[in-house]
Amino acid sequence: MRQIFLDTETTGLSADKGDRVIEIGCVEFVNRKATGEIRHYYLNAGRDSHEDALKVHGLTREFLKDKPTFEEVAGDLLHYLQGAELLIHNAPFDLGFLNQELALIGQPAFASHVLRIVDTLAMAKDLYPGKRNSLDGLCDRLGVDRSGRKLHGALLDAELLADVYINMTRGQDALLIDAPAEENRCATWVGADLSSYELSVPAASEQELSAHEEVLKQIDKASAGKTVWRLLA
Fold first, then answer.
1. Comparing C-alpha atoms, which of 57, 107, 53 is closest to residue 77?
2. Averaged pLDDT, 12-24
3. Residue 48: closest CA among 72, 17, 12, 15
4. Does the CA dihedral 102-104-107-112 come out positive or negative?
5. Domain 2-169 class, CATH top level
6. What is the DSSP string of 23-89?
7. Among 69, 142, 158, 169, which residue's Cβ finds the most Cβ atoms within 10 Å?
8. 96 burial class (0-12, 13-18, 19+ CB within 10 angstroms)?
9. Could you tell me the residue ranges of all domains in the chain?
């Protein structure tokens, strides 16, 4: 399966009030392995970021003034995302902005370009109800190194999200351990002849037999005498 982990940075919190996307980061996985295929765009939104947003991502209007607009990168981005499963942490927030950007250039919503959209925040809330399920909180809980995250950045956060997702769905070392090739497993297999060994089978004590029989009686009682071992006996 082809999966794309995506994150954005924006000028503020309200797409409805004119805030815009100023950074997009995407990381591709195929069959749960990173391919190295990424997309990372800084975008000139033609407006300043709110003070609180600027404290989060540090992307000033001056830094972004020579960057492309969303319209200029949209074709490349949509081609990259085509047919993939898209994973976003707190997806309604990012999609609100991304769908607005698409609407401004006459394109349909993101859902029409991808196989499906998965909200990893909703997943985390199901797995860890009542816990802190922000990206930072999940990194801490799952042992994902976020020491390089001084400010929020879309590409770094997409990479962290990929790590978090793999940990949530298969285990902490999933990104680091590759299964050995089939031929290597066969080449290194050494059989052992166990025919000369006799296994000792200890007999159950009277106390253990009595306890076992009591358990069987309780099960038999609960099933109204329909347990298989009684019927066969």
1. 107
2. 95
3. 12
4. positive
5. alpha beta
6. EEEEEEEETTEEEEEEEEEE---SSPPPHHHHHHH---HHHHTTSPPHHHHHHHHHHHHTTPEEEET
7. 158
8. middle
9. 2-169, 203-233
Which pLDDT score, from 0 to 100, does residue 179 have? 44
Reported as a single tens digit per residue, the pLDDT across 107-149 is: 999 999 999 999 999 999 999 999 999 999 999 999 999 886 6
CA distance 140 to 233: 56
Q: At what angle do helices 154-169 and 135-142 cross, to 10 degrees?
A: 50
Task: For residue 161, give the 3-state DSSP assignment.
Answer: helix
Structural element, H or E, at residue 221: helix 206-222
Contact 99, 110 (CB under 8 A): yes
Distances in Å between the Cα of 201 and the Cα atoms of 102, 119, 208 are 71, 53, 15
Residues 72, 99 contacting (CB under 8 angstroms): no
Cβ-Cβ contacts under 8 Å for 143 (sequence gap 6 or more): 167, 172
* Active-site residue set: 152
pTM of the entire predicted model: 0.72
